[in-house]
Amino acid sequence: MNLENVTVEMRPRSEWEATDFGARMIRRDAAAIYTVWFAITLPLLAIAMAVIFFTPYAAYALLLYWWFEPVADGAILRIISRRLFGEDANVRATLRAVPVLAWKNRLFLFTPYRLHFARSVAMPVTQLEGLSGAARRARSKVLNLKIFNYGVGITAAYEHLVLALYFGIILIGYSLIPDAYVDTLGNSWMDLFWLDSSRVATAAGLLVFYAAQTALQPWFVGAGFGLYINCRTQLEAWDIEVAFRRMVQRRAGTVAAAIIIALFVAPTVVLPGTAHAQDADAVEAEQPADGDPGFVGFWSDEDVRPAIESVMASDALNTMETVEKWQRIRKDKPEKDSRDRDTSMLEAALERLFDFISLMVEFGLWIMVAVLLLIVFLTRNRWLPYVGFETAARPAARRIYLAGGELTADQLPDDIIAEVLKAWRAGRKREALSLLYRGSVFAAVAEHGVRLPRSATEGACIRAVAAQTDRARSGFFRRVVHVWVRCAYGDQEPSDDAVLPLCSEWSQHFGSVR
Amino acid sequence: MLLDTAYNIGTPEGVELRLPVAGLAPRSLAWLVDALIKSATLTVLSIFLQVFGDLGGGIYLLIVFVLLWFYNVLFEIFNHGATPGKRALGLRVMNANGTPVGWSGSLIRNLVRFVDVLPGCYAFGCASVLLSKQFQRLGDLAAGTIVVYAPKTQASGKPDSTAPVPLKTPMTLDEQQAIVSFGERASLLNEERAEELAAILTPVLEDADRTRLLGHANWLIGERSSS
């Protein structure tokens, strides 16, 4: 295995994304994968069909097919794992390797492990890393920590999808039968698939199941492989290795140099236990058979043994944990008699209780309805305009948002001009002018129905008032605003001559309502 | 081009967005969660509404109608493109150009759902998701929407206390990122593997080892020695 030739974008993905990543790999080599799939499963299907028609064990044919179908999974796994590292998806070589693969996967073909809930993520460990026995269990434990749940998740998803497709295909067939015949067939056509035990019916059921599995099984295998690869990418930082090698390659300029580095640098470290770096070499553990020396020859057992032992002896792998939990202790006899005696009373009591509860619930629901109706009525002003009714216009209730915040009636005194004059004479000029300005804006909105944009600035107020009221009023408003703006932003305090006329004229233009 | 799950789009501003589209398994499971929620809601409601007799029956039918046709639409519009099931699986619906899904997109994709369901068990939808490039079912194709993994805020690795070491060799952005992610994930690797990775860089950085790379990583993320 050579990470330089990797043909996919390596990066740590989320687990679900990793399953999709597997689907991408299947899609890329769909032609080769389906060739291999049919080459392996069609003979298997033929055997199952022979069992149906020539032996008395027709009922077991589906089981037979289903049980040994993972042979094809192994072949698919071989193709996508090799393509991952840039090798060709060689159909012939794959088919020749089928017996070897079947032997590697013997655990999942010939033992109850066939029913493994996360088989799609467990198979790469046996097949690609070539592990078995205790080594496999230890390795699986490491991977399972991260991805077992997701392995079960995709098994659940895909097995249910196979079933859905199985029924879907039957429904398609059913919908293609002309109505006239459906009546004459009655239920017998559907019965064919799940009640009839005749050989034709069993064979038809098997064919439909085969079709459904053909559509989905490769994607399931791909999803499991995606999870497995992603898990190792995270554990062993493959993406970083790829990036580093690219970095070296870019500078060295030649691929040859990079390979030499890979050969001499990589084997300097030996990693047993959890995240096996040497598995980087073992993703395809069949290399020796294929004439690829790999890196296997660089280590002897003696070199490796001490490192393995030291890691296996480390605390991380030898933690003991005591788990305490409550367990119910069964008492055999005592309650039984009393319960028999009380049954009828209890039933009657329960019945009364339920009557009471249902009465309460009924009341509760009617109260809820009443409350809902009340809410609808009380909020009529909000929704009536939407249904097309005009509500009584209440301009005073309109909200005013100036640039500095909301302006409400209770911010203003009752007699605005009196307050303004009081403040002005007391020398609090800024406060006086501010009040005059805000009072004018409020009056323009409340009394003359001027609509302001949200967060209106002084200029926006002038424009709005000019557009929506008569000339005299808007001219007056403009003077008020100018005085205020000069004072507030220009820091030019106006003289009495500028302010007092505004106060005396104010009531001509505003203040009629309040 | 390398095979990848993400779907890259460029915006007019020259920003590249990476949309990680979601495939069959998580989407089926999200659908399952939604189906369970809907059926549980209807079951509970049917028990309580029985008290109302015919009125209750009418209300129940209205609720069934709204739930079946607008459950997905309303959640997708008002819940950032995610029904509760999608949220549970970390998925989200959006337009294929990366913008949030709107009323028309959501309505179309959920009306066409009834084609995806055909012939009764989502067979068309499954086939479409498996065969289309961005894992779109027919409704998605019609509405121009995709289902993506909602971005997770991932905690970056623990800041390492290694003293920052200035990086003298010029490096591309990708290369710098590789060193930074080495720094973030070194604590998750065992030490030998980290050393092995660092050793790869020997031709580029003389005496590259784990500590030195961690120093470079810290320097690249902006740490400077306090002295």
Question: What would you say this structure looks like, in words?
Answer:
The complex is a heterodimer of chains A (about 525) and B (about 230). Chain A has a two-stranded antiparallel ribbon with strand order 1-2. In chain A, strand 1 and strand 2 (about 405) form a beta hairpin. Chain A has about 525 residues and is mostly helical. Chain A has 3 domains: about 5-315, no CATH class; about 365-395; about 395-510, no CATH class. In chain A, helix 8 crosses helix 9 (about 135-175), helix 8 (about 120-125) crosses helix 12 and helix 9 (about 135-175) crosses helix 12 (about 200-235). Chain A is elongated. Chain A is built from 24 helices and 2 strands. The model of chain A is unreliable at about 265-295 (pLDDT under 50). Chain B has about 230 residues and is mainly α. Chain B has 2 domains: about 5-150, no CATH class; about 155-220, no CATH class. Helix content of chain B is about 50%, strand content about 10%. Chain B has 10 helices and 4 strands. Chain B has helices spanning about 25-50, 55-80, 85-90, 105-110, 115, 125-130, 140-145, 175-185, 190-200, 210-220, and strands at about 5-10, 15-20, 90-95, 145-150. In chain B, the strands form 2 sheets. A two-stranded antiparallel ribbon of chain B has the order 1-2. The longest helix of chain B has 26 residues, at about 25-50. Chain B starts with 5 loop residues before the first strand and ends in a 7-residue tail after the last helix. The model of chain B has no long low-confidence stretch (mean pLDDT about 85). Chains A and B meet through helix 1, helix 9, helix 12, helix 13 and helix 14 of A and helix 1, helix 6, helix 8 and helix 9 of B.
Fold blueprint:
The complex is a heterodimer of chains A (514) and B (227).
Chain A: H1 15-28, H2 30-54, H3 61-68, H4 70-84, H5 91-96, H6 98-104, H7 106-110, H8 119-127, H9 133-175, H10 179-185, H11 188-194, H12 199-236, H13 238-252, H14 255-265, H15 279-282, H16 287-290, H17 301-312, H18 335-378, H19 380-387, E1 400-402, E2 405-407, H20 416-425, H21 429-448, H22 458-468, H23 471-488, H24 496-509
Antiparallel strand pairs in A: 1-2
Helix pairs in contact in A: 1-12, 2-3, 2-4, 2-12, 4-12, 8-9, 8-12, 9-12, 13-14, 20-21, 21-23, 22-23, 23-24
Chain B: E1 6-10, E2 16-20, H1 24-49, H2 54-78, H3 84-88, E3 91-95, H4 103-111, H5 113-116, H6 123-131, H7 138-143, E4 145-149, H8 173-185, H9 191-200, H10 210-220
Antiparallel strand pairs in B: 1-2, 3-4
Helix pairs in contact in B: 1-2, 2-4, 8-10
